[in-house]
């Protein structure tokens, strides 16, 4: 049953000066936007203290008094209009962060401060682009987790059946086409054309492009051990796997703005509507394929080789390092070059120590999101963090990472402390893994045909990971005061206003 917002709507109306002070009201994705007769009659302090309101501000440039609600904004808006009358309804508009008059944070003055500032801006760009699709990713992750449970563990669904294929497509769709979804959202945030950027993302995940990176590479020329599996006008290039990735398309969303603006200024009006998107798609796609593809592949290949070397050197040390830092690779999609190592291990030997260690990083991020759920009093964040935790425990960390843990930065790093300790303990106990699906839902993958203690080692290391990550986040990683800091970070991004 849905929540009743009558009392909240009534209190907001009274807080902005009553019905007689309102000309009209509209809403965006997160805010009610009132057009008032006299903005000085609005009681910002009272409105901000209302349960269900995250903040309030008057935007002088737009002449709007904005009340930040969050995910329930449509429900609150409907109730406000029900109380005011249909004549006050102004509908909805796109949520543009530039409409907030809140001043930006002071720029840092030290080298370390600039590094921290740059990292916050980068994370702000990524999370801001990801937030609109987090709920869908969480739902998809949970669906994939249950499908794994019903298929590999309980054997209720035949993995060769059409039932499996259909449900698996439902769970995979949001991840496979993630560049398109993120590209659309990133373009809106970075002020590019969302349709053009989504089209560029479509090129990256097009079946013919996917066929290039999936094709055998034996005998192909290489660059630093990276196969040059394609050529563009005779120039050898490498096409990596772009499905599931986000950073290349965020780069494309940034680049599409100056390219599109330049074309808009120089193309004749009569042909602009056709050739501006055509040339933008062509130029930006070529740049992403020629520049971003090789860079991502080289970084991924180097990291994969380093991780593999670390695992063979000392399993305990590898567990500590991988447990503490592996999820950093997920931020930029670099973890996908580690997957072939795991696949080869399982295909050749039937097990993968590396995959076992990585599993605890998923558990750690889930536990961190769970701690946020337990501590926050914000109902919207409670729902998001619980869904993210369940998804991470089902083997998909992106909803927890992008929706909660990275957004409130200390949550991510405090969670990684649990991952590091859990990975270290798993390494000391020589934990091995005999399947592909990890995290808590993948527990059957830790039943060893020769070592009965292996499953108990997994249980112990998982429990330690959950407890440490949860405690670190609960006491030192999160407080509800971080909500406002995160909102300020989302208004910034690395590329914003870099070019006009």
From TrEMBL:
Keywords: Cell membrane, Kinase, Membrane, Phosphotransferase system, Sugar transport, Transferase, Transmembrane, Transmembrane helix, Transport. GO terms for biological process: phosphoenolpyruvate-dependent sugar phosphotransferase system; trehalose transport. It is a multi-pass membrane protein. The keyword NAD does not apply. The active site is at residue 28. The chain crosses the membrane at residues 117-143, 163-187, 194-215, 235-256, 277-310, 316-342, 354-374, 386-405, 417-443, 455-477. Residues 6-90 form the PTS EIIB type-1 domain. Signal peptide: none annotated. GO terms for molecular function: kinase activity; protein-N(PI)-phosphohistidine-sugar phosphotransferase activity; protein-phosphocysteine-trehalose phosphotransferase system transporter activity. Pfam families: PTS_EIIB, PTS_EIIC. One of its GO terms (cellular component) is plasma membrane. It is found in: Cell membrane. Its main location: membrane. This is Pts systemtrehalose-specific iib component. It comes from Weissella minor.
């Amino acid at each position: 049953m849905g929540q009743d917002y009558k009392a909240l709507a009534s209190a907001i109306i009274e807080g902005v000066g009553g019905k007689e002070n309102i000309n009209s009201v509209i809403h965006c994705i997160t805010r009610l936007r009132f057009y008032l007769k006299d903005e000085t009659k609005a009681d910002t302090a009272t409105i901000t203290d209302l349960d269900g309101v995250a903040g309030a501000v008057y935007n002088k440039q737009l002449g709007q008094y904005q009340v930040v609600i969050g995910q329930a904004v449509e429900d609150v808006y409907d109730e406000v209009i029900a109380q005011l009358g249909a004549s006050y309804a102004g509908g909805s508009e796109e949520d543009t962060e530039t409409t907030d008059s809140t001043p930006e944070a002071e720029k840092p003055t030290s080298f370390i401060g600039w590094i921290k500032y740059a990292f916050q801006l980068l994370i702000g760009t990524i999370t801001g682009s990801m937030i609109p699709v987090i709920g869908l990713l969480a739902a998809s992750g949970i669906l994939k987790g249950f499908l794994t449970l019903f298929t590999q563990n309980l054997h209720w669904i035949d993995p060769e059946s059409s039932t499996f294929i259909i449900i698996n497509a439902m769970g995979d769709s949001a991840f496979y086409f993630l560049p398109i979804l993120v590209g659309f959202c990133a373009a809106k945030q970075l002020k590019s054309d969302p349709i053009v950027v989504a089209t560029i993302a479509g090129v990256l995940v097009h079946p013919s492009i996917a066929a290039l990176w999936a094709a055998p590479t034996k005998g192909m020329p290489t660059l630093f051990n990276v196969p040059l599996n394609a050529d563009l006008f005779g120039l050898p290039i490498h096409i990596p796997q772009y499905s599931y990735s986000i950073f290349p398309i965020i780069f494309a969303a940034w680049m599409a703005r100056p390219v599109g603006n330049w074309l808009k200024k120089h193309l004749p009006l009569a042909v602009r509507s056709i050739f501006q998107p055509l040339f933008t798609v062509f130029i930006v796609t070529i740049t992403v394929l020629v520049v971003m593809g090789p860079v991502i592949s080289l970084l991924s290949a180097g990291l994969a080789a380093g991780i593999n070397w670390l695992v063979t050197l000392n399993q305990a040390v590898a567990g500590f390092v991988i447990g503490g830092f592996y999820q950093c690779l997920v931020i930029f999609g670099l973890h996908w070059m580690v997957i072939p190592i795991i696949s080869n291990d399982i295909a050749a030997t039937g097990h993968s120590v590396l995959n076992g260690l990585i599993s605890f990083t998923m558990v750690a991020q889930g536990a961190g999101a769970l701690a946020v759920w337990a501590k926050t009093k914000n109902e919207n964040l409670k729902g998001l963090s619980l869904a993210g935790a369940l998804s991470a425990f089902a083997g998909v960390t992106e909803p927890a990472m992008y929706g909660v843990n990275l957004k409130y930065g200390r949550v991510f790093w405090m969670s990684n402390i649990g991952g590091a300790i859990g990975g270290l303990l798993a390494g000391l106990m020589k934990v091995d893994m005999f399947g592909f699906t990890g995290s808590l839902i993948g527990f059957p993958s830790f039943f060893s045909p020769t070592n009965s203690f292996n499953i108990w080692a997994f249980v112990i290391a998982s429990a330690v990971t959950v407890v440490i990550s949860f405690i670190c986040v609960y006491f030192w990683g999160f407080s509800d005061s971080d909500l406002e800091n995160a909102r300020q970070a989302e208004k910034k991004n690395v590329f914003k206003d870099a070019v006009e």
